[in-house]
Write a structure and sequence with these properties.
Layout lengths: L1 E4 L2 E6 L2 E8 L2 E5 L7 H12 L7 E3 L5 H4 L2 H8 L2 E4 L4 H4 L15 H5 L14 E3 L12 E5 L8 E5 L4 E5 L3 E3 L4 H6 L2 E4 L9 H13 L4 E4 L5 E2 L2 H9 L15 E3 L2 E4 L7 H39 L1
Parallel strand pairs: 4-5, 5-6, 6-7, 10-13
Antiparallel strand pairs: 1-2, 2-3, 3-4, 8-9, 9-10, 11-12, 13-14, 15-16
Helix pairs in contact: 7-8
């Protein structure tokens, strides 16, 4: 846990971040990481705000499992509500799965997305709509910025007084397309995570909108916070890199308040077939090695008996 701006601290977890927003008298948790991070987040909150610290609410930038994963458990522990944009609700109350991640899109993160779930936590009746609720939660200085593209109801939060941006996954500050950059968290302002971004035209418009805010601090869902990067954000907006191929590169998924209404056709994914062929070859080679070993043992025994006789 580290303070990065006034009344704002980051709680880093592997490759995703949560944020503590506010003071000991009144604070909220923005995003909650993957499932199983309840202990880490509670310890960070108590380190910052004191023993037994409890937020007014949990507020989500969006509902993907790596941002909402611990929200149900924490909501139950703390007895608080979880706030999300209305278009995120069908994925957070069990009505719909998100569009499946696209493992055929370019980059390391896309390859790894074969192991990502499409479903996230089910918050049931604990859900509340973000809307105009921030002042009541003690976030009166913050604005909700609608930034769809990565997900239908993705939002960011902006504080104009000191130009601090909680960006969620609208942008990242690490290159998730690169294995080495992901491992080292080398700072670079980048597009949203490729395999789970399902409307690239909207994602580009959202980055343009954020660039117009000229943020002084960019606090992302993935990567370390960046200071004085408004020019880099403007450059990203001017030359926003839409993937050259992939399920959602040329045609978006569509959704409404009930969930997903249309998915582009799934492209051919050769990797599972290749992996299956490799696994089969390894298995055949293993069986062959066992049979060869048994044949040699049998020959050795026969030779031994012949020598004795």
């Amino acid at each position: 846990m580290q303070e990065i701006a006034r009344d704002l601290a980051i709680v880093p977890m592997m490759i995703v971040n949560a944020y503590l927003v506010g003071s000991a008298e009144s604070w909220v948790l923005v995003d909650s990481g993957t499932p199983g991070n309840e202990k880490n987040i509670r310890e960070a909150a108590e380190t910052r705000f004191g023993p037994g610290a409890k937020p007014r609410a949990i507020v989500l930038t969006h509902g993907h499992f790596d941002h909402a994963g611990s929200s149900r458990a924490l909501g139950e522990i703390w007895g608080v509500r979880v706030y999300a944009h209305r278009l995120e609700w069908p994925y957070l109350d069990g009505r719909s799965s998100y569009p499946p991640p696209d493992p055929t899109a370019p980059g390391f993160f896309s390859m790894m997305s074969r192991f990502f779930p499409s479903r996230t936590v089910n918050l049931g009746d604990r859900l509340e709509e973000t809307g105009s609720s921030l002042p009541a939660l003690g976030m009166g200085e913050w604005e909700v910025i609608n930034t769809p593209g990565h997900t239908p109801g993705h939002v960011a939060f902006f504080r104009r007084s000191d130009a601090v941006l909680l960006a969620g996954d609208a942008v990242t500050t690490m290159d998730l397309d690169s294995f080495v950059a992901t491992l080292t968290k080398q700072q670079k302002l980048c597009r949203p995570p490729v395999p789970a971004t399902t409307d690239w035209q909207q994602a580009r418009r959202s980055v343009h909108l954020l660039a117009e805010l000229r943020p002084r601090v960019i606090a992302p869902g993935h990567g370390l916070p960046m200071h004085d990067a408004a020019n880099e954000l403007a450059e990203l907006a001017r030359h926003f890199p839409i993937p050259q191929h992939g399920r959602y590169a040329n045609e978006p998924a569509r959704a409404d308040e009930s969930g997903v209404t249309y998915l582009p056709p799934a492209p051919v994914d050769a990797v599972p077939k290749i992996a299956a062929s490799v696994a089969a070859a390894i298995a055949i080679a293993g069986v062959g090695a066992v049979l060869l070993s048994r044949h040699r043992e049998a020959s050795a025994r026969r030779n031994c008996r012949s020598s004795i006789s």
